[in-house]
Amino acid sequence: MSEPPAGPRTAAYRERRDALCWLLLGVAGLALAGLAVQLDARLGTASAPFLGRYKIRIGAGTLLAPAVAAVTLWLAASGRLTRLRWHEIQLFGYAAGLAWAIALALVDGWSGLTKALGSPEEYLGDVRQVGDAPLTYLRHFTADAVYHSVASRGHPPGPVLFLWALQQIGVTDHIVLGFLITAVSVLAIPLVLAAVRDSVGEEAARRYLPVLVLAPYAIWTAVSLDGLVAVLGAAAIVSGLRASRRRVRGWAAIGWALLAGLLIGVASLFSYSAPWLGLSLVCVYFARRRASLNALSGIGALLPVLGAQLLGFGWADGLVAAETDYAARIAPYRSVLWWSAISVVVLLLAAGPPIYASARKIRNTAMWPFLVGAGAAVVFSIAAGLARGGVEHAWLPFFPWLTVAAVAPERPGGDPPPSPLLLVGIGAIVAVVIEALLITPW
């Protein structure tokens, strides 16, 4: 397929080409997953590439998500969003992203906001173990791992203690709790937009807005405590960018760098994979020639971890316990070879077509530090044999950063392309289809 000469239709041509390449890869990946199921490979699920089961559901709730997607795409294509001021762009991104995530969840009715909370395999079932003694729970968390839910065994105690704190302030209704968790998780959208703006300018951030808002991985953002990790990680990266601005020096730089590390440290108490986002901070500091800030962010990151250690929870001990449980409970029953390939298929589908354009143009953007941290986390997970189902949930903190280069110029220093609305629209269709067919365990 030859490329046409540069002209007004070149960007549209390249977008169609990216969409076609992504579709071919996606179809090939689904065929591979289907083959694994037919061969009765050790997958631990009959719904590969995802975990769950398939059942067609079409109803009033199924129409809400396409309506949200259509309105968002129309506003972006009509140019109405260009008239908004920056804080209005962020507010719109948050509101539209929340509507998208909730609309997808409501395909299952109200249970879309509550089923994860009521599952015995999820965190909420462990809250009763905390009782009136959170410090005792923290001290015995690792030793009592065998008594925890499946979700808690693979994570630090942060998620359970967060839910316990919400119950202490009176948030007990499952629908309210599900909506609140989703509303907090979607805060990642304005934070990622702020990071893009700080790195490559406001115009590119505005064009990236639809990619973030209508991302297919919003299916798993609803009622997800991994979404909280995404928010903490995004806030950390924004803080690191503030610390390393050219004109920010002295106490201001110290404060922002410490805050960036502190947020990574807090995120690490929610997820053992969160420290990978710290690699993005390291790359940002070196790219901006402010390498000394690494020491400050490193100190900030250690504070929550050491604080938890003093209170009785050893982060490293928890990680070892999680890996031991994984090796005994999951590894023998899920083929590492099949899932290593299938997890890449999940990545393609969950991030949508923009991930292909982003991968193609990664060398053309100053946002490469974001892709390094998120990409390293994904590669390590696969290489270490940890990606054996459920990555659509586990990789939520990394998905937004893997598509940032979708709005990068075609060559270094060039003009940013228009917002890739064709890619976004195809991704939205994929999300609606997946939600209508797949019943997830979350």
From TrEMBL:
This is Integral membrane protein. The keyword tRNA processing does not apply. Keywords: Membrane, Transmembrane, Transmembrane helix. The keyword Transmembrane applies. The chain crosses the membrane at residues 20-38, 58-77, 89-107, 175-196, 208-241, 253-286, 293-316, 336-356, 368-387, 421-439.
